[in-house]
Sequence to fold (277 residues):
Amino acid sequence: MTLYGSIFYLLSATVLAATVLAITRRHAVHAVIYLILSFFGTALLFYLLGAPFLAVLEVIIYAGAIMVLFLFIIMMLRVTPSARTWGAALRQWLPAIVLGTISFSIAAAMVFADPRTQAPLKAVRAGPMELGRFLFQRYWFPVEIASFLLLIALVGALYLGKREGKSGNGQNKEAS
Amino acid sequence: MIVPYSHLLLLAVILFGLGAACAVVRRNLIMILIGVEVMLNAAGLAFVGASLRWQQLDGQVFVLFIMAVAAAEVAVGLALIVFLQRRTGSVDANRYNLLKG
Fold:
């Protein structure tokens, strides 16, 4: 096993462990902290796979902006950890585990049966300049659409976050 | 020579499954959004691996768009959660049963 290979397995084990810990936490704050660890591991995987610009963007956008937004909302809403009800949880987990095992084994069989996926990945990298040139030469129109989508999301979030009523300060539930 | 592409696909599939399980099983709306984030991240990982496997930059460009969509989705989703919390006083998905007969 090469050095890159061992780094890959180490990073993927870290990412998997952090994600499993994140999705099983009762407190949402703990989940977000573990998820930040998972996203840092993913950023290192991106760097290993030859995408340094995407690694930087992963840290800035995912681990930085999105997770800080989650933390803000969690602390603003004072989310209390929900009490566990094991009976309902088991009833929901059992079909999920069965169906998930079936679809996961089918996916793994398909991945490992295809000889084209057995090709080892070569360690090459595409710098930010090549990626930018490629992006704006070939995909300039989707970039415009993505910026428009972000603008619409901004307007939508502003509209949803606005309090109802002109004089409504403190009276939030007058419509319900 | 890093690893075979299948190992990377397997990692992405497991991550996607974890995210889907989180989005389906958890009842907290914030945890559901976190599950969706994990799923999008796993899809991006598969795209970067495919971009390296076929030596084409299209996969990396798609990860950029996935990040834009994830940012928009989180902004609108969290605004919806704040709106619902103001409206009903809870972020538990089981409590939204006003239409129940």
